[in-house]
Write a structure and sequence with these properties.
The complex is a heterodimer.
Chain A (H helix, E strand, L loop, with lengths): L1 H34 L7 H16 L2 H12 L6 H26 L3 H10 L3 H31 L17 H12 L2 H35 L1
Helix pairs in contact in A: 1-2, 1-4, 1-7, 2-4, 3-4, 4-6, 5-6, 6-8, 7-8
Chain B lengths: L1 E10 L2 E11 L4 E5 L6 H8 L7 E6 L2 E2 L9 H4 L3 H13 L5 H15 L8 H14 L3 H6 L1 E4 L11 H12 L4 H14 L15 H13 L5 E5 L7 H16 L3 E5 L3 H7 L2 E6 L2 E6 L1 H6 L4 H10 L1
Parallel strand pairs in B: 3-8, 3-9, 6-7, 7-8
Antiparallel strand pairs in B: 1-2, 1-4, 4-5, 9-10
Classes of the chains: A mainly alpha, B alpha/beta.
Bound molecules: adenosine-5'-triphosphate (ATP) and magnesium ion.
Chain lengths: 218, 307
């Protein structure tokens, strides 16, 4: 059981770090892409961002993990971090599209009204557009985080032993199996862990959504 | 106050403005009318640079809002490679001709045929840069002095009425929040909506939204107000309440530029009426004469339809 506990903590840790990375990256990429529509200085950064999202959404995450861990960051001891980095960067590509869609769903008149009052593009974005976009973005981000959580279960492929950061829930299932010699039982135990985490995440996001909508109707 | 100098605006292949020049003096109330698609909104939006004109310049109180249009500055044209090459050719062709005559004809030709290229040499680029540096005004600063009211209100739905009105003064003009609030309440009282201060825009009627949109712009204490069909999206019974706010504003001496189909408002309030058609100003006059004796054929046709 200590294996499950260890795996649980690591899975949560990996997901959390990757999620934060993904959110920050996704946010920046989304804003750069949208800024490029009116600002010629953003054209080249936006092109880079497009290459990034195309590659990371267009190839399997397992392949990305493989390349990052064994080719790009083949540094001893860096494996777990390279893996988390991969999940974060991969997630960022998806998150950026959700955020972009959320921003674009805000009525064009809002930007015009903000600009007409004298706000700069960035000020309008931050004070007027993003607060409205959040409502549309949150559900998509929730889905993305759940997908990310489950995606991290392949981290064991890069090699994991109890005690290392890559020893996540899924890896724990392997060890438990070896002890109990029962695939089904170990699978059910770990599966339940995933289920519970996902359920908690869904609950939290539902709550946030409700809060956001409440401020809408007042 | 606002000087619109020969502006052109193209959207893709669609030439919407085809050389519009107009001057708006302090205190004037200019009403712009014209058929749908004639470029009225585009003209208004070029004034505060929500659209950037393809050619031409917009000036506000002696400061330039748009990029420099070299075609409007002959001494800049004279620094271009194209001009110098053409002058040289013209002189060789006719050595006896007077310098001024050649200069005038070359400049006329360059303007007529749009001959200036992207790169016209260092001197040309330098002249444009200097002229721009001397005259330009940061657009965000300029917009703080130009209120704009949109057809579809564009209130910020995530903010209360009061927050809608105070966000810009507080953030941009650094007015202390308490003071901004007081000022906003005063404005709300003026339009009879002080009881709506704490509600969100979604709960308001169209007429109320537009009145809030007007006072939101006024909260920045602008020197001029731009209105783009402020009553077109309203149910008929709400048009009056918005127009009366605008009439009051006019009486207080606000400089106003109004795109509207409300001919009554134009007659009553305007100091000048412009008729736009097909991207140019076809006729321009004080309202009495404008409506009583229209000269342009298209205007006669237009008035016969709307009056
Ligand atoms: N951002 C844009 N992109 C492409 N075309 C545009 C854009 N804005 C306006 N146009 C086109 O320019 C033309 C003139 O538009 P504009 O809105 O200035 O007309 P208008 O005189 O205000 O008409 P209306 O009375 O219908 O408001 C129209 O054909 C319109 O489709
Ligand atoms: Mg219009």
């Amino acid at each position: 059981m200590t294996y499950v506990g260890q795996g649980l903590v690591n899975t949560l840790l990996i997901t959390l770090i990757a999620a934060v990375l993904g959110l920050v990256l996704g946010f920046i990429v989304a804003v750069v892409k949208i800024a490029a529509e009116h600002n010629k200085w953003m054209k080249i950064p936006a092109a880079i961002c497009n290459v990034y999202t195309t590659i990371f959404r267009g190839t399997p995450v397992a392949l990305q993990l493989f390349i990052m861990v064994f080719a790009i960051f083949a540094i001893p001891g860096f494996k777990p971090y390279a893996a988390i980095l991969t999940f974060g960067i991969n997630s960022g590509a998806y998150v950026s599209e959700s955020i972009r869609a959320g921003i674009l769903s805000v009525d064009k008149g809002q930007m015009e009204a903000g600009r007409a009052l004298g706000f700069s593009w960035l000020q309008t974005m931050v004070k007027i557009i993003l607060p409205q976009a959040v409502k549309n973005i949150i559900p998509a981000i929730g889905n993305e985080l759940i997908a990310l959580l489950k995606e991290t279960s392949i981290i064991g492929w890069v090699g994991s032993t109890p005690g290392s950061l890559t020893f996540d829930l899924n890896a724990a299932a392997d060890v438990i199996f070896k002890n109990m010699a029962n695939y089904l039982a170990s699978g059910i135990i770990v599966g339940c862990c995933y289920l519970v985490i996902v359920y908690i995440m869904v609950f939290i996001f539902k709550y946030i959504e409700r809060r956001l909508r409440a401020s809408d109707r007042r | 106050m606002i000087d619109v100098n020969n502006i052109y605006k193209k959207f893709g292949n669609l030439q919407v403005l085809k050389g519009v020049t107009c001057k708006i003096e302090k205190g004037e109330k200019v009403v712009i009318i014209g058929p749908s698609g004639s470029g009225k909104s585009t003209l208004l939006r070029c004034m505060n640079l929500l659209e950037t004109p393809t050619y031409g310049e917009v000036w506000m109180e002696g400061r330039l809002l748009t990029p420099i249009d070299p075609y409007l500055h002959f001494d800049v044209i004279r620094k271009s490679k194209t001009y110098n090459a053409m002058m040289l050719a013209a002189k060789n062709a006719d050595p006896a001709a007077a310098e001024e005559a050649l200069d005038a004809s070359v400049i006329a030709e360059i303007k007529a045929k749009d001959l200036l290229k992207k790169r016209e040499g260092k001197e040309f680029a330098g002249a444009i840069k200097t002229l721009y540096k001397e005259n330009f005004q940061d657009i965000n600063q300029a917009r703080m002095k130009m209120g704009m009211v949109f057809q579809h209100f564009n209130l910020f739905p995530h903010l209360t009425v009061l927050q809608n009105m105070t966000i810009a003064p507080i953030k941009l003009k650094k007015v202390p929040p308490e003071e901004a609030k007081e000022k906003a309440m005063e404005l709300l009282k003026r339009v009879g909506l002080e009881d709506k201060a704490t509600v969100y825009p979604a709960t308001l009627s169209g007429g109320q939204k537009q009145r809030i949109a007007i006072v939101r712009a006024l909260a920045m204490e602008p020197d001029v107000m731009l209105f783009d069909e402020p009553t077109s999206a309203l149910d008929p019974e709400m048009v009056g309440e918005v127009l009366s706010v605008m009439v009051d504003l006019a009486k207080e001496g606000m400089t106003m530029i109004v795109v509207t189909h409300e001919m009554g408002f134009a007659r009553e309030v305007a100091t000048k009426v412009l008729f736009m058609d097909d991207g140019i100003i076809k006729e321009e006059n004080e309202p009495k004469e404008f409506f009583a004796h229209p000269k342009d054929e298209r205007l006669k046709e237009f008035l016969s339809k709307v009056l």
